[in-house]
Amino acid sequence: MAPRKPVGIKPVADDMSCDHKRHHTLNGVAMRTKPPSGLLNAYPQPRRGFGPHSLGVQPHGTYLRRSLLALACTLATIFACACAIPAGAQTSIPVHFHAVVTPSPAHPGEIVTATVQLTIDPGWHVYSCIPSGATGPSASEIVSLGDWQPAGPTAEDTPIRTHDPNFDMDVAFHEHSATFRRQFIAGTEGSRGLDFHYQTCNDKICLPPTDMMFANAAIVSAGPIRPQFAKPTILAAAPAPSGGARTSLGLFLLAAIGAGLLALITPCVFPLIPITLTSFAKQAEGNRGKLVRMAVGYASGIIALYVLAGSVVSATLGATGANMLAANPWVNLLEFALFVVFALSFFETITLQLPASLSNLQSAARKQSGTAGLMLMGVAFVLASFTCTAPFVGTLLVSAAGGEKLRPLLGMFVFALAFTSPFLLCAVFPDWISRVPKGGAWLARVKATLGFVELAAATKFLSNADQVWQWKLLTQPALLGIWALISFCAFLYLIDLLRFGLIADDPRTPAPPARLAFAGLFLAVTIYCFWGMSGRPISPYVGAFLPPAGYGGVNAGDNTQLPWSPDYQASLSDARAAHKPVLIDFTGYTCTNCRLNEKNVFPRPDVQRVLADFTLVRLYTDGGKDGPSNQQFEEKTFGDVALPLYGVIDSATGAVVDKIAGVVTPGQFEDFLASAERKIAATNPGAAAGEVDIFTVSGTNPSSGQPWSPLDPSRIGQGKPTLIDFTAAWCVNCHAIEKQVFENPAVAPILKSDFVTMRVDLTNWDSPASQAIRKQYQLPEALPAVLLFDASGKEVTSARITGLLSVADFLKKIGPLRSSG
What we know:
Elements: E1 24-26, E2 29-31, H1 60-84, E3 95-102, E4 111-120, E5 125-127, E6 141-144, E7 149-150, E8 155-156, E9 160-164, E10 169-175, E11 177-185, E12 190-198, E13 200-201, E14 210-220, H2 244-264, H3 272-284, H4 288-315, H5 321-327, H6 329-346, H7 356-367, H8 371-397, H9 406-419, H10 421-428, H11 431-434, H12 441-469, H13 476-494, H14 513-533, H15 540-543, H16 568-578, E15 582-587, H17 592-600, H18 605-611, E16 615-620, H19 627-638, E17 645-649, E18 656-661, H20 666-683, E19 699-700, E20 707-708, E21 722-727, H21 732-742, H22 748-754, E22 756-761, H23 768-776, E23 785-789, H24 807-820
Parallel strand pairs: 15-16, 21-22
Antiparallel strand pairs: 1-2, 2-14, 3-4, 4-11, 5-10, 5-13, 6-12, 7-11, 8-11, 9-10, 12-14, 15-17, 17-18, 19-20, 21-23
Helix pairs in contact: 2-8, 2-9, 3-4, 4-8, 4-9, 4-10, 5-8, 6-12, 7-8, 12-13, 13-14, 18-20
């Protein structure tokens, strides 16, 4: 019998080889990261008939030699592959993907929906698409690799939210599974791919932000645009964890309740409440049932009109209908006149009475049970106070711009219910009305004091009209001066030096402590207003009610000026030439929240340093000749009409990068700007300003005083052991090892006295500089990574750190280096 040939090693498939490639394909999916080593598939496969039972008459020694030869070849292959893997490389990808694009094939110009489903290994998590700023994890996003244009942002399942002490911010992520969706406008014919950008971490290491490419994910073929794919739709997230959706709706309804209660304390609403309640109590004549019916009928009219107004505004004017009405200069002049009339009535100068027609209508309705008349009175109450409540209503209607029709109506109903709560509560508990103190001289003083408040509020409405028409008469100092004069008159009235109205003929009596306390408050307001007129800084919450800084060529309490331009197209050209992104501030002349951000956020030095990286544009949408066109531009470009709204445009492509609306904190605004810069850098490397050079990162930990130097190879091996910390802004475990280990009181003094400490920022993981340094030091494909060198400059490979560790373990690793140094 012829001897058998030696058993060889079965070749390994190309895509599972030990040769690491930058781009590879996994089940038809290309991924820009290193692949799994594939060692399990590299094991030799036994040939048919090979084994003890197939040896036949072969000598035992021949079988033993062949077995040993096969084993040696196997071990050699495994060893060769293992040596080719850098230290700390991952042997498997902890996230598994499935991508679907519908419709497929699509026609050019149609709306296609890309869905990426993730299955996440236990212990790992993938961060959400919510931006976290420059010093946080990388946000997930679906990006088209072809000529498709985004038709909306990336949507996702409801993520898990928690406060991360290492980043010192709230972060959102997914565990076990997640679904991301995004809509695009299909481009030209042919095959198109998608790119899913994501980052994953566990409790020890963080993999760098990675792009999973789905080659030929969709096909575009010739054909007309089909009606069912002609417009973007509201992307519905996959089933959220239990309680997620309810929490979102609960927060929305809670905001509606808060808006209704806040609307009650506006100047054109609050004074009418006690008058109405007293009138109801007199008409009820002690009959609680009748009082309840009157209150319910009155409240029903208010609720019905608000819900109807919400429906009409959503269907006709859009989400900005109420805000635009509130910003109308003629409406503001009417409010100014109305508030002056209110003030004069409080001063007992004039007497307000309901129109005879309304009284007759109420009398006629009362003969028919009174419900219709009461509802009409409620409608009149809404119309009289609508300008004050319009900002609250407009905020609730913003969601209508996204196509949600039910939620705005529900929000309006809850808002109106909270708005009518005083009438309903006092009807159920009528004793609350009877406990109101009787009238007298003290009530005349209270009413007159409210009159001064009404006058001050009236000047705010006059200022709104002044700004919209650009008269530039009521500047910041002028408005503060008027408020100071009104406050000082109120002070004189309360200390009995200014006398008018019902108390003019009363004998002078010592002022009680309560009245003196209010007099002191008005005096303090007077002094504060004079303080602001002199140019000294004032509270941003006061400045929010003043005109913008620089209005009329003068400021009050704000010496900070930023180069805002009113011309978007010219600024876009300038930004493109300067390689800067564009930040657009959509604001309003009458927008109090806009002023609040301008006073509280923009003047901060840290915010201004970030703003220097942008070309700044400010567009007013509620007045002036460009107001309507600016508002149309906001709605068309950003799909929103809120004020204030801040949007970032990539000047290189003209594409929308990100947006944020409403009142923001300085930290939130900085994070928003940093996130926008990172998104631009991801699509146009080097385009975003402020990119960090990894060789110039240095600094000192404020808590420990530990100095960190930039990387300098010449300093390694100069008589002291060296520690090099490779970190990144997106690496949560890098921040954890810095805070929990390096800054620990048991570690920080040792590092400061016994080690040379260097820090390298690898945030731009795929930049040429980062790739070169990772290759030079044979870094793993994950962070954190800490290298330790002895006093002679030789790396102690056994002490290399590739993940989060405890203080005790860290001290064990550096112990031998301390003694040798």
